[in-house]
Write a structure and sequence with these properties.
By secondary structure, this protein is mainly alpha-helical. The protein contains 5 helices and no strands.
Length: 109
Amino acid sequence: MIEAIVSGVLVKIAEGSGAALVDLIRRRFLRQAEPGTAIESLDRAARGDASPDDLTILSALLRRCLAEDPEFLRELRQQIPSTGGATNVVATSTVGKLVQAQRVGDITM
C-alpha cells in the first residue's frame, strides 16, 4: 500500500498537478532534524527538474515517513486516487484507438 501511495505522489508531482501534495510533504519533511536535502529534492521535483537521485531520495523518505506517521499516511491516501489494483501497459507505437476507462456506458468507435 505504501509503495502505491509513493508512486502516486511522485506521478502527480511529475505531472505538475501535485501542488497541494508538495505543500503537505514539505510540512512533513520540515519536522525532520535536517530537512535540507529532502526539501531541495522536493522542490526540484515540483519544478520538473528532479534527477534520478532526487526521486530515489524522495521515494525513500516518503516510505519512511509514511511508515512512521499514520496521520501523514491518511492525509496522502486521501489525495491519491486508488487505481483499484489495475495496471495498463501499451507496448506498441501502432495503437489505433485506445480507451482506458472505469464505469462507462456504451462506447462506439
